[in-house]
Amino acid sequence: MAFDQTTRNRLQRFVNDARRVLEEEFTRQLQNDYGMDPNAGTVAELASLRHINDAQRETARILRDTLAHYTASGDMDATQGLDRIVREQAFTVLNRLAALRMAEARGLLVESVGNGFQAKGFQLYARLAGTGLGETGDAYRVYLFSVFDELAQDLPGLFDRYSPQGRMFPREAALLQVLNLINDADIAPLWGQDETIGWIYQYFNSKEERKAMREASQAPRNSRELAVRNQFFTPRYVVEFLVDNTLGRLWYEATQGTTTLRDRCQYLLCTPQDVFLRRFDTDDLRPGSVAALVQAGRWPDLPTFDTTEAGVQAMIEFAHCVNTYDRYANDTWGDYFQRLEPALREQRFADLSTQELWDGIFLVCRADRHGGDGSVYQERWFVATCQEIVERLKSDEPQRKAKVIAHHPVRDPRTLKLLDPACGSMHFGLYAFDLFAEIYREAWAWEKQHGPGSLQVPADVVRTEEYASKTTLAQAGKAQAAIDTEARKATPGVYAPLCQAYADEAALLRDVPRLIIEHNIYGVDIDPRAAQIASLALWLRAQRAWHDAGVKAKDRPLIGRGHVVAAIAPPAELELRQQFAATLDHLDTELFEKTLQLLKGLPEMGVLLQVERELPDLIRQVFGEHGSLFKEADMEQWQKAEARLRVALTEFAQAAKSTYQGRLFAQDALQGLRLIDLCREVFDVVVMNPPFGALAANTKDHLVKAYPRSKNDLLAIMVERGLELLRAGGRIGAITSRTCFFLSSFQKWREELVLGSAKPELMADL
């Protein structure tokens, strides 16, 4: 079913109705059971709650610790904190039930939410459990909790029942209302669509809320307003257009047009006029050489092609700028040549593309060198062919304009990184998943044809991964390390050739969904709820890939945590900071405090906080006077210190279980460290639907100072930041408004960034 306006309206009604039911239910629970009134902002003493059982008392204590954690910074009062609790609990329950419904539609889960209490999974569970779990409603709740607990192994951010966002659950009457809504026949076909969870995320906040925020203030006043104002789900065609011409384009160019993505990516703008240059060595690119002029696109400077000795030598060099052997297997180029040669000799240039013209003179040149007497270079048609190619390269006519593409090595797909810095529900990542799956398939074939080591692994990626493999235990804790270690068994060494890491193509393809999540797709969002469902969306996509391939659940590789990060505020509790500092030595204590200061403003800025720039100075401030202790470079110094902080925070959280607020403190600090790690990566592709408009009031001064060329609008800043995070030769794709390309206030941004640092290749004005 297409997501037309009528379909979206049905889904919006469902989300609005479900949110209303859940928020009313959790407000009543807070008031009646837990002594916390969201309307008045009052909280009763825990000792006064004599009407609840021990389990409810534990929940009441945890809710109070959560509220204290939310209000510790002073940026929100008790009323706002309780409103946040109600909203987060409702969103989490809705997402959990929607996730189960989507898993059912994909055949990943036995019917558990569909048909409510009559669900097949629950009916079987109830028969086995008998009457030991109480009435039907109680038994169903226990059943759902068992499903949540199983899924929490892969998706703790959403299904961990002990997370601060998931402590509450609707009572039977409210739960039945939500189940009736989720099983409405009007939206039944939507649960099989990948886009559904993204539309649920957008519709959770209503148009009326956004309108009220804008009327209250022109600029967002906090991170929630910034997130809500910019929650616009990116349409599928926009996603495909941007990913096709960034990730798809990179692979298309690396494979010199031989990829199946050429036909699969319907928005990939490539033509028969595209010309792929061969790899040049230093001698080829000597100053003034034909190869150097061609690579630089300096067509007017090319020498005259004629039958003089200098002209012949220039023609030979010109013909060899494109190496047809890189693109056509040796057993097929002969047939290709037989088709091209007659058209070349008869000068029927209109019948051939620019690439075919260039291939033709190369093939004729090669044939002459292997058995001819050199006379081909004296032929008038050969001279005419060279001249025709140059004319096409210089031509302004769209149908004749040729694009010359420099040689790029084919990369090991495990080293390709795509970032969505405002990921929302990860719609870009879901489509990129499909392209990455095909890239892995083609990479296997490429390595089989060209041999082990033919897939390039950048040196900086090797260094990063070597360090990560050494510090897995220290950084992730034993539970996560066990998952990571198990997941890496299929890939011994650091990026061993695919044919050595996997027994056969089937073994690689079985592992591809895990590889994509753990190696290729990165996302950041300032809304923790977005990170919740982005991780869910990728997990569901991986499970569907395995399901479609017939891989049974027991044979599916374990998926690690992935790379979706929520840009949340660093912990503000002074007393807990002091308690944690007592577990560290004095240098690590200073480092931790300065790191928290560095992360100030993170909820409003996300990746715009240029933490990687500040780290070297921060490390030198802390450790610089102790050079005899540490002789490593700044970044390696940071990695070692960060690993120690991760271990200490993990241990602090475990030791602080009796103080739930201590656990929240440690988790938020760890999330900040994850964001720092992500900002230190370099990405091959950045794609985004960035926030637009005015800067958040409390971060405006910082952003104006950090991005003086882009300070007019958040979208301009996001584009500049995307360029900073790109690897040399990488590509950025963004949906923007039109204003930044026309208003005079954006002139410096256009001249220095869009036309200076970058090179725009494609624009669609809608």
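the 2nd protein, sequnce then structure:
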Amino acid sequence: MPPQRAAKHYAAQMPSLRLRFFAAAAVCVLLAWITLSYDFGLPLPGSLGTNARATSLVCLIGMLSVMLIGLDVVTAGVMGLIRGRAGAESMIVLAAIAAAADVIYIAASGDGSHGVTFAVIPAAAVMFALRSAWYSCRAYADSFLALHHAKDAYAVTSEVLPGKKERILIKSRRSSDGLVRRSEEPSGAEALAMEAFVPMAVGSLALALALSLGAQDMKAFFHLFSLMTALCVSFNWTLSFPILFSRTARHLMMRGSALAGWSGARDVGRSRRLVLTDTDIFPEDAIEITGVRFMDKSRAAQVLGITGSMLDAAGTGLAAPFAELMRRKNAAMQTVEDFSVGEGGAKGMVQGEEVRIGTLAYMHLSGVKIPDKIKEENALYTAVSGELAAVFPLRYRPMASVQRALAALRREHRKPIFAVRDFNITPLMLGQKFKMSTDGFDFPAYRKRYAMSAAEPSDYTQTAGIVARDGLGPLVSVAALGRQLYSTVRICVILALLCTVIGVVLMFALCAIGAFDSATVGN
């Protein structure tokens, strides 16, 4: 589905989900009031406060009402059972069936000695599932809207480059086709709920049977089975990822970026490092050629064309400002042969002459003599046939957004790899320009930088997100928020599973010693 159509599709569902959530919430509040009042001896109208049979029947009616309001949640749970992909919604359905069976037994036998029904728990789970669906729709609508409006966007992918054992993020120009479908893949919470369904369902049945047989009271089986299944219905299964993804998607949309749902967050979260290129540090409008000095003015246009051609072959961020200068000076591009790079510069053959461009240090290493009066700290030098031909002083203007992004990388302990091709960008230069320590910033050798900056996603790599704007800030936002989303959802899911186990163990212990008054729906 095209991004714009997908965004409209999800946005159109939000009003209905919002209305149904509030309707379900109203019923759940009533159910909670009735249930808690019965448990704790608070006043209730009529026989509700003293008759477990009447109270359970009222709670059953309320639960069924919520199930009708959230029929799509119930349908998803039933279809998950039929297809063998039972998850969180299927657990809600199982808990609802167990609660209904408990109420039917209480109504038929009139025995409410073990307490009132647990029907409020699956009803509340349906309510929160409706809310989570609303958050999911908002997150998808925002993400796909950002994808639709992103013109000529960068794709963010997670790769394992040659010689690197850890995953790193790279930014490249590639199609975002398939991002809509990938965004809709199941989240980590859904995947774990699917894995945990069978153990939870079988465990609930086994524990209920064990308690009934141990107490020699099979009449309590339905109530105990309802208790155990209700304990497995963690609201976190359905709510944790959608609410966090919704916040992340809205934040990224305001910056023209998007994540490919849980799959994209997982790729970003697992990547400890990211590759930075020239324009990430100094965008094209942040570099200025402040002056030009030619050793032989009669060859000025030719030397300028040679320099621009070498920079274009090198693929540095200086190529764009030099191309503009060449246009103004009517200098023509030249063919570069035998091109190679070294530490701080590059060399090649242009019209049969050896040409070298680079920093002052590179010229010294190449044996090119530079007069003291024209030595510049940030400048590009051009030498033809071993003789200095031109000097181009440069001004690098540090951007506040880049400074904030670099500071954010340091705070998150995410080590960037500076795969920059600009010969003047060094750790010392960055430290001076951005007023910060560059300890921990990885500056590989020039040959490795060229290989990394030229890296393209492999054919089987899937896009984790998009960045619609140039500069480092948007890329760092996607990396930081994706990592936060991934780690936070993992914590939420682990807590859901841990609290489920703790709840089951605690209630099992209470029932095992016959303390049914403590193992109530209120507690």
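The radius of gyration is 33 Å. The chain has 18 helices and 13 strands.
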